[in-house]
Amino acid sequence: MLLTIQFGLAVVLLELLRLVGTIRLDPLQLDIAKVWFPVNMVFVAMNVTGFYALMSVSAGMFTVLKNLANIVTILGDWYFFGKNYSWHVWACLGLMVLSAALGGWSDLSFSRSGYAWQMVNCVLTAAYSLTLSSVVRRFFGAPPRAVPASPKARGDFTEEESQVAATGQKRLSEADTGEQMWCCSTLSAIR
């Protein structure tokens, strides 16, 4: 019920902002809605399982266990998209697993159903991330953290944005993954 209220409120607020003229919403296109539908369904399922997990698991333990979703996401990136990660990333993931194990071991309010919901939530969190990545790849034809090949060719960038995007592309070709994420999020913020 709470989820329905939250999502309904978001729709109402967006519609009010559109009516006031603060934002512009594109009309609904069925073909685009079909592509994004699985992403939204996984998102809703992720939120629902998170609510059920929080009924039995403390918020702190929920956060620690939620980090396990990163492992499933990285394994999915490797399996589905052929992405490789350095040993530094794997070492950090090892520490996350250790912290989850130690947290679970010392959890006085252990609930089998709460942990089960949390594990399902971790799988759905990873599924959401991977599904989102897949849809973005389908729309833009590039890895989700990459800048489109020719921003000017799209025709919707100003001259200044084109210059920033070109600089970002140069940096992407010279940068490691962390810098790529920073660079692309900076370009996204400009848009």
Task: Describe the structure in your own words.
- It is found in: Membrane.
- Keywords: Membrane, Transmembrane, Transmembrane helix.
- The chain is mainly alpha-helical and 191 residues long.
- The protein has two domains: 38-144, no CATH class; 148-191, no CATH class.
- Helix content is 79%, strand content 0%.
- The chain has nine helices and no strands.
- Helix 2 (30-56) packs antiparallel against helix 6, helix 4 runs parallel beside helix 6 and helix 8 (159-174) runs antiparallel to helix 9.
- The longest helix has 29 residues, at 112-140.
- The chain is globular, with a radius of gyration of 20 Å.
- 16% of the residues are buried.
Topology:
Layout: H1 2-20, H2 30-56, H3 59-66, H4 68-81, H5 87-105, H6 112-140, H7 151-154, H8 159-174, H9 177-190
Helix pairs in contact: 2-6, 4-6, 8-9
String of helices and strands: HHHHHHHHH
Shape: globular
Give the radius of gyration.
20 Å
Strand content: under 5%
Number of strands: 0
Question: Cα distance, first to last residue?
Answer: 35 Å
**Biggest sheet record:** none
Number of H/I helices: 9
Helix content: over 70%
Number of separate structural domains? 2
Class inferred from helices and paired strands: mainly alpha
Poorly predicted runs: 144-157, 164-191
Mean pLDDT: 76
Organism: Gonium pectorale (Green alga)
Keywords: Membrane, Transmembrane, Transmembrane helix
Subcellular location: Membrane
Protein name: Sugar phosphate transporter domain-containing protein
